[in-house]
Amino acid sequence: MRILISGASISGPVLAYWLTRYGYDVTVVERAPQLRKTGGHAVDLFRPAMEISERMGVLPQIEALATGTTELTIYREGARRPSHVDVTKLVGAASDRHVEIMRDDLSEAYYCAGKDDIEYLFGDSITAISPDGDVTFEHAESRRFDVVVGADGLHSNVRRLVFGEDAGRTQFLGGYLAVLSVPKTLARERQSLGHLGVGRVAMIYTAQPLDDARVVFLFRSKEELHYHYRDVLRQKELLQGAFAGMHPRVDRWLEELNLTPAFYFDSITQLQLNTWSRGRVTLVGDAGYCPGPAVGGSTSLSVFGAYVLAGELAQANGDYLRAFAAYERQMDEPVRRSRAFARTAAKRLVPGSAAGVWALARGAQLISALPTSLTRALAGLSARGVRVFDSMQYRDYPTTVGG
Ligand SMILES: Cc1cc2nc3c(=O)[nH]c(=O)nc-3n(C[C@H](O)[C@H](O)[C@H](O)COP(=O)(O)OP(=O)(O)OC[C@H]3O[C@@H](n4cnc5c(N)ncnc54)[C@H](O)[C@@H]3O)c2cc1C
């Protein structure tokens, strides 16, 4: 059985790895000319994604490449003194098995785990998919596949091609997100530093595997802003407007806007498809069920979804209609819970009032002051809340075909 996957970031390589383990013939097409190694950001892996990575044999590499951030200093607008937060305690409250790693490093670990048995077509993109599985590409010769999977992110090409109008069913979560690459000398390893104000947050961090530092900006907006997704100058103007006058340090970061080699800007938007399969085509990861970038644990959900989809295809012996139905059933609850979590996180991470700003800074400080055992015990009381990602249940699929 021949399976085509569009996208080689997180969900694509994880899915490809498991499908080849189950004996399928897998091709991955990626628009970028090679595996992307610039401009990524730090992402989180929670318990189920850690366990799946362990089964793939890549957990030691992933742990070795962890960002290692242990301390966060928060400057609250209007406050005289900063708050110091123990990041390990904060994370410990949300997860008992977690790692933070740069997205590009994670992608490479998954890619390397399976690349020898997978055909990768870099620098290409799908242009059409017929109901019979005939696929045309921008560059490669057209071919026929039994199954096509879109693992090509929030703005998925496969989703647009196959789902038409439904592809755009989204909910704006009231905020924007930007990431800027700045000189490493502006940050310190192991220590994040953030400025927190009403409706806006700016935070810098770096990590041992990085040659630069990254500044993440989050800001609120009641209305969706008007700009073209390719109009980077306008996006930079919008960002500058949102952070004007926050703090001289933030102004210094914004000076890098004209020099930065990597800039990312997008709305915090949640995909709201109720079903993400049509005929022989399905979606995985952010392409199918992005709860919102940076607010909904979407990396873990992507790894989890890729593992479940491959497992269900193997269980159904390639009967893809049966497998897709089982995959969607298995993902229903994790996706709904991640969406709910993301909607709350988008509000809490960027508070809309001075009281909210105070509560966020104070809450983080309090958690970091409690003994880890206590924060874990308190968090464990609400597995449906803060422990949403650790508590996702999945079936124990075999590690190889017939295994
Ligand atoms: C700024 C930012 C901050 C984030 N922070 C966090 C965080 O703190 N924690 C967390 O868990 N998650 C975070 N995320 C989300 C995380 O990056 C994604 O959930 C995760 O990368 C999803 O993986 P994916 O493989 O499904 O999609 P993506 O990582 O989006 O990858 C899609 C792939 O498809 C390729 N592609 C796109 N179009 C085509 C095409 N036409 N043809 C072929 N290939 C194509 C792209 O080049 C890319 O390689 C953040 C995301 C962003 C943008």
TrEMBL record:
<dbReference type="InterPro" id="IPR002938">
    <property type="entry name" value="FAD-bd"/>
</dbReference>
<dbReference type="Pfam" id="PF01494">
    <property type="entry name" value="FAD_binding_3"/>
</dbReference>
<dbReference type="GO" id="GO:0102099">
    <property type="term" value="F:FAD-dependent urate hydroxylase activity"/>
</dbReference>
<dbReference type="GO" id="GO:0071949">
    <property type="term" value="F:FAD binding"/>
</dbReference>
<dbReference type="InterPro" id="IPR051704">
    <property type="entry name" value="FAD_aromatic-hydroxylase"/>
</dbReference>
<dbReference type="InterPro" id="IPR036188">
    <property type="entry name" value="FAD/NAD-bd_sf"/>
</dbReference>
<protein>
    <submittedName>
        <fullName>FAD-dependent urate hydroxylase</fullName>
        <ecNumber>1.14.13.113</ecNumber>
    </submittedName>
</protein>
<feature type="domain" description="FAD-binding">
    <location>
        <begin position="3"/>
        <end position="315"/>
    </location>
</feature>
<keyword id="KW-0560">Oxidoreductase</keyword>
